[in-house]
Amino acid sequence: MKVLVIGSVYPRFHEDAEVPWLRTSIAHLKKAGLGIQVLAPAYKGLRTHEIDGVKVNRFRYAPASWEILTHEEGAPSKMASRPWLQLLAIPYIISGFFKCIGICRKFRPDVIHAHWPFPHAYIALGAAKLFKIPLVLNFHGAELLLIRKKKWVKPLLKFAIGQAQAVFANSSFTAGKIKALRNVDVEWSPYGTTLESGSTSAGNGGTSAIVPHPVNGKFKILFVGRHIERKGICYLIEAAKHLPRDQFEIRIVGVGDLTDKLKSQAAEIEDAAEIIFTGKLSPEELANEYRTANVFTLPAIVDSKGDTEGLGVVLIEAMELGLPVVASNVGGIPDVVVDGVSGILVPEKDPEALAGAYRRLAADPGLVKQLLEGAQKRIAECFSWDKIVERQIGVYKKITK
Q1: Are the CB atoms for 269 and 241 separated by under 8 Å?
Q2: Quick one: what percent of the chain has pLDDT higher than 90?
Q3: What DSSP string describes 9-27?
Q4: How far apart are CA 370 and CA 14, in angstroms?
Q5: Of 47, 53, 180, 278, whose CA is between 20 and 30 Å from 231?
Q6: Is the pLDDT of residue 347 over 50?
Q7: How far apart, in whole angstroms, are the C-alpha atoms of residue 312 and residue 332?
């Protein structure tokens, strides 16, 4: 079986950290014996190339210096800060549409699997109709949130869903939004971890070890991610007010548009848990953060644009690395964190609830062990790549009969 995977972003070179979950997914499909090619936009003139033995077909849609609509930051965020980028959307779709037809004429895939259906369903539809290739649309949530701001997107998405032979969603939260738009069958297709199986780099001996991290001095609370509104970092900083300085430390990894504002907020808090901004870290430095942390947290919120976490794959990775997790009960997070079973869920925008969860874990090693065992079970049942890919291939086979 041959599959053409379409997306807005794909690694530009071997060390590129873009969409590691999609790269890992494709590697597992290839390992299962499928022939895979990728179709993705160029970035600053990038031509067709190979990554991990997979051909990545790049379509050009503007002069090289203008090809910055994708990669390094989400297109909606870029368009919000630089409205002129919206002008590139039309050549993006047209160029991708004809490139897709050209690839399908030569490659003859059995399935076209389009991620982020707006606009990629419209890049895929011409080839799907012309060559009678079944179309799979894979939603990740962001495209559905566009409907709130751009009403004209709704009929386009509704039509595209009706043209697909199968629809995937990364979480039950996203699936619910698809069904509200058009009542179709939706397959739950989450991501697994992008960590290497059995990795010991983060210090717990791989996924088979379930050992509570020892408390050495202060209880360390770790956040890793972009400093953007929907991550809810400001509420994590507020939670510091409810944590004794001599017992707790909050470590915030990453950078983003809100970094300076968050640092100013943290500087104004006194007599509270110490808050440390590490900036962007190397893989080795990041591994050390996981190794020395006591809990991983994702205090996500539904932001002012209506955006939130589609799934929270970073929670899966923290669980794999032997850290208990505390997260907000929003978006797709409850698919990963079953409260009291695989982690602790708290209401969004509630610093006191966050602090209370950290204090519970610091005081009860037995609870930590229980949650880690539940987390490993949850990963094995729902987020194993073998099972995810098996379900995916099952859908491919069903629609190509």
Answers
A1: yes
A2: 75
A3: ---SSTT--SSHHHHHHHH
A4: 38
A5: 180
A6: yes
A7: 7
CA distance 171 to 297: 19
Tell which residue, 7, 68, 63, has the closest CA to residue 43.
Answer: 68
Render pLDDT for 5-23 as a digit per residue (tens, 0 to 9). 999 999 999 989 888 899 9
Contact present, 299 and 225 (Cβ < 8 Å): no
- Provide the Cα torsion 237, 342, 286, 195; round to 10°: -150
210 or 2: whose pLDDT is higher? 2
Question: Alpha-carbon Rg of the chain, whole angstroms?
Answer: 22
Q: Is the pLDDT of residue 345 over 80?
A: yes
Contact (CB, 8 A) for 213 and 241: no
Q: What pairing do the DSSP bridges indicate for beta strands 111-115 and 135-139?
A: parallel
Q: Is the pLDDT of residue 247 over 70?
A: yes
Cα gap 258→308, rounded to integer Å: 16
How far lies 175's CA from each of 60, 189, 335, in Å? 32, 10, 12
pLDDT of residue 216: 56
Within 164-199, residue ranges assigned H as helices are: 172-181
Q: Which two tokens stand for residue 59?
A: 């379509």
35-41 β-sheet, strand order:
49-51, 54-59, 35-41, 2-6, 111-115, 135-139, 166-169, 187-188
Angle made by CA atoms 287, 321, 54, in degrees to the nearest 5 = 75
What are residue 29's DSSP bridge partners? none
> Please, what's the b/e burial string for 116-134 (b: 16 or more CB within 10 A of its CB; e: otherwise)?
bbbbbbbbbbebbeeeebb
What's the start-to-end Cα distance of the chain, in Å? Answer: 12
DSSP string, 207-254: TT---PPP--SSEEEEEES---GGG-HHHHHHHGGGS-TTTEEEEEE-
**Total Cβ atoms within 10 A of residue 378:** 19
Mean pLDDT, residues 225-239 taken together: 95
Spell out the alpha helix ranges (H) of 214-364.
233-239, 259-267, 283-292, 313-320, 333-336, 351-363
Q: Is the pLDDT of residue 210 over 50?
A: no
d(CA 353, CA 261): 23
Whole-number Å distance between alpha carbons of 211 and 217? 18
